[in-house]
Amino acid sequence: MTTMTMTKLTLKTEGDTHILATRHFAAPPEAVYRAHTDPKLIQKWLLGPEGWTMPVCINEARPGGKFRYEWTHPKQGSFHITGEFLELEPYTRIVHVERMHLPGPTPDNHVETTFAPDGGGTLMTIRMTLPDAKTRATMLATGMEHGMEASYVRLESMI
Amino acid sequence: MSSLLSLNASFAALADPTRRAILARLALGEATVNELAEPFEMTQPAISQHLKVLEEAGLIVQRVDGAKRPRRLATAGIEAMDQWLAMLRKALEKNYDRLDEVLAAMQAETIEPKIMEKKSKGKKP
Prior knowledge:
The complex is a heterodimer.
Chain A: E1 10-14, E2 18-25, H1 29-37, H2 39-45, E3 53-59, E4 66-73, E5 77-89, E6 93-101, E7 109-118, E8 121-129, H3 133-143, H4 154-158
Antiparallel strand pairs in A: 1-2, 2-8, 3-4, 4-5, 5-6, 6-7, 7-8
Chain B: H1 2-14, H2 17-26, H3 33-37, H4 44-56, E1 60-62, E2 71-73, H5 75-111
Antiparallel strand pairs in B: 1-2
Helix pairs in contact in B: 1-4
């Protein structure tokens, strides 16, 4: 299977507190959904820049379930994210809240992720809702580097 | 030469997530130490230490306003920020490129006849 060229990430802000991201994947929604809920798969890709690893990946993918991702880098230290799942509709939709620990927790980020069939592949759409504009700017700045949901977006609001 | 040194200092200063967040906050406008400390639940001295690093890196400047000394981004800070954002966008793309590979591997697995053995409860090895 070859890599498609239409896989570019789009990022944009909406209103004062929302962030939208979309990305096409050349795999069906079932697979993309699994890659977002199976710890063994998550550990393979949700790593951000070179050099970071995720030694701890706990993911209780059920409504009310918790997750915890810990990242570490030989020189830059480590940090983690915790969150709870609010809704899970297998293969189509995930709603969760999350916050980073730096080590103090950042304000909660409410995230809805949908996976829609798209020409044999999947169109993933992420919609984040932050408490206020300042929080959004802060979150974008802290999360993006590590390339997680929190991170998908900061840029558009800042550039 | 000196601009190279200063760029190094900028990137070293940017290596810390709290300092990056401080810059992001200052991108919205100038702020006092208290305002900067608030979202992080950090003490004022801890924030002041970060501000000192950012100032020495030429990323922020301060002015005197009565008893307050609000900070704002220096022009160099904004430029460094742009570079940093470009770097981050790259990191994100990297995540999804990795995910593309993971997905391709998953599909290759599914196509093989021996799909999965019995799917028991996920046990940790």
